[in-house]
C-alpha cells in the first residue's frame, strides 16, 4: 500500500511506514537573498537600520593577501606623510584562526614587504633542508629526481605554520595603525547609486535556522570606503557576486578547483626530520584523477608533521571521496611508519583555485579590486600561492594609494577604481611565473592522464613555458562528473582509528562550532537541485566531496 504526504512517498507495511524517496523539494534555504524578508511577516516589525562607518580603504579578509595590502597601504601613508584609514574585516574570531597550518612558503614577497622580517621575529624558523618527490604504486615508491628550477625544488623556502605567520602579519598591521576587526564576516556588498562598490555590510546575528529573527537579533554594520579590496580566498561568496555584476570573468577560462585536506600530527621523535619536504603523485588515485600528497616536517618544540592530500575536483566518478582517499594514502607502506604510535592533533580542509593563468579574471572594477586566492593566484605544480597572495595585495595597495591621492585624474564613478593594478600584476613575477606553468594542469586532460601530464610537464618546464600555445582546461569541473549509472561504486577500507579516521572525529578537531538553531552556511538558489539532480543522477556526491561530510 502506498500513501503520500505533501512532499514524501511512503510504503505502508502492516502498521509501519517507510519513506522511499522525496517527490517534492523541501524548503531548505532560508537566506534573505533567496527568501526576501520584505515578504516575510515574521520580519514585519523588526528594525533594519544599520550603523555606518567610513574608512578610506576596507579590506575583506585577514589572510596573507589582505594583511599584506593593509600593511603596504600604511607603509605608503607613512612614507608620503598622508592620513589613511584602513580597516580589515575577518570572519575568524582571531586573525590566523581560519588558516590551515602547515605550508611551504617562498619568502620573496615577505622580503619585499619587510626586508628585516628576521629581526622583527617573523615565524619562519624551518628552512627546507631535504626535498623528495616520488610516484607511488600500491605497494612501492619510485623516486623522481628534483632538479634545480623544477616546481618541486624548495631550496630557499621555509616550512611554516601559516596560521602563525598570518597572526604575525596581523600584529604588524595593527602596529602600523590598521584597524583589524576579527569575528566580523562580510555578508553583503554595498553599492552607490551609480553601481560602483560602496563597501560591505557585516553579517546579521541572532537568526534562527528557519530564517526568523530571535530575541537576540542584531543588524550588522555597514563599512563604506573609497576603495574596497576583496581577499576572501577561493570562491568567496561576495566575489562571485562581483564576477557577475561587473562581468569580470567574461574574457577568461572557467576556474578549475581542487580540494586540499590536511592533518597535523605529533610523531615519535625518531621519525621526525625538521626541514624535510616530501611530495608524491600516483596511488591511491587512478591515472585519470589529478592529485597528490605532501608531508612537511616542522621545527617546533614538539615533533610536528603536516600531512596533506589534494584532489582535483574535475574527477569523473561521483563515488570518489577525497577525504577517504587521504585516509587510505596514509596506509601506504612508505607512509604509514611515519605515523605509527603518533597522535593526530588537527584536521582541516580548503578549496583551491587550480585554473592558473588561463582563469585569472579582470582584477579591478569601479570601487574595488580582487587579490590573492580570490583572483586565482596559485602556482599549481608548485602547490604555492602565499607569496603571490602577498605580492598581489602589495600591488593593489600601491594602485589604491595612488588612485586615492591622485587629484589630477577625474573619476568616472563614486567608488574609485585602481585601474593600473592589473597592469602592475602583469609586469610582476606573479604573471611571468603563472604564464610559465600555464600548460601543466590542463595537460593532464588527455587519455594518458597522469602519465601524459607528467611527460608534457617535463617538456614545458624544459622550454620554460615558451611554447607558442596555451592549452585549454576544457569544460567546467562539474561537467566532467559522470552519472552514477556509468561508473562503479568505490569501496573504501574501514578506518582503523590509529592511522586513518572517520569524518566525524576529524571534524571534531577543526575547532569549528555552530549553534544548532542557526541558518545553514550554504545557500541554495534552487532547493530542488540536491534531490532532483545530485541524488537522482549522481547519488549525492556532495556527501562525499564535502570535507565535513555535510
Tell me the structural class. Answer: alpha+beta
- Please estimate the helix content: 10-25%
How far is the first residue's CA from the last residue's CA?
33 Å
Mean pLDDT figure: 91
Largest sheet: 7 strands, mixed
Question: So what's the overall shape?
Answer: globular
Strand line-up of the largest beta sheet: 10-9-20-21-22-19-23
Low-pLDDT segments, ≥5 res = 1-22
**Alpha carbon gyration radius:** 24 Å
Q: Note the total helix count.
A: 13
- Quote the beta fraction: 15-25%
Question: Count of DSSP E strands?
Answer: 25
Description:
The strands form six sheets. A seven-stranded mixed sheet has the order 10-9-20-21-22-19-23, covered by helices on one side. A six-stranded mixed sheet has the order 12-6-5-18-25-24, sandwiched between helices. Helix content is 23%, strand content 23%. The model is unreliable at 1-22 (pLDDT under 50). By secondary structure, the chain is an alpha+beta fold. Strand 20 (276-282) and strand 21 (291-297) form a beta hairpin. Residues 56-98 form the FAD/NAD(P)-binding domain. InterPro entries: ETF-QO (IPR040156), ETF-QO/FixC_UQ-bd (IPR049398), ETF-QO/FixX_C (IPR007859), FAD/NAD-bd_sf (IPR036188), FAD/NAD-binding_dom (IPR023753). This is Electron transfer flavoprotein-ubiquinone oxidoreductase. Its cofactor is FAD; [4Fe-4S] cluster. Its EC number is 1.5.5.1.
